[in-house]
Design a protein that fits this description.
Rossmann fold; 5 strands; five-stranded parallel beta sheet; globular; about 45% helix; about 130 residues; 6 helices; alpha/beta
């Protein structure tokens, strides 16, 4: 199975995976699973990382550079943001308007992937997949 990781999975895996369930760990470890990441997730993390709290600490959970580095060491493929999917409609559309979630689903649609997510607002979408 070819999986695109939702941003929260990238964060959790980068910081050690403690937030993953046993079922998610087993699913990701299956030999037939090929993992993809999106530069859209790096962009989302960069926006969060660059916002700071009143004490000056980043609001983001982990730096986008740490995520990129971790994913590259793991040998995962990054999907670039290119014009065709950036302009494509999502079929079927999602009810909410989070542009990052929508773009990840559009990339999954364009590349023949499933989006691994725990986001309850996405799990009803045919391209979304929960593992546990």
């Amino acid at each position: 199975m070819r999986l695109l990781l939702d941003t929260h999975f990238l964060v959790w895996l980068t910081v050690g995976g403690a937030a993953l369930t046993q079922a998610e760990r087993a699913f990701l470890a299956e030999e037939e699973v090929t993992i993809f990441c999106s530069v859209v997730s790096l962009w989302e993390l960069r926006l969060k990382w660059n916002r700071t709290t009143s004490s000056g600490k980043p609001k983001g959970p982990v730096s986008p550079e740490a995520v990129r580095s971790f994913a590259e060491r793991a040998g995962w493929t990054f999907l670039p943001l290119v014009p065709r999917p950036a302009l494509a409609p999502l079929n079927p559309p999602v009810a909410h308007k989070d542009p990052f979630d929508e773009m990840l689903l559009i990339q999954a649609q364009a590349e023949g992937l499933r989006l691994l997510t725990r986001d309850k607002t996405l799990l009803d979408h045919p391209l979304a997949l929960g593992a546990g």
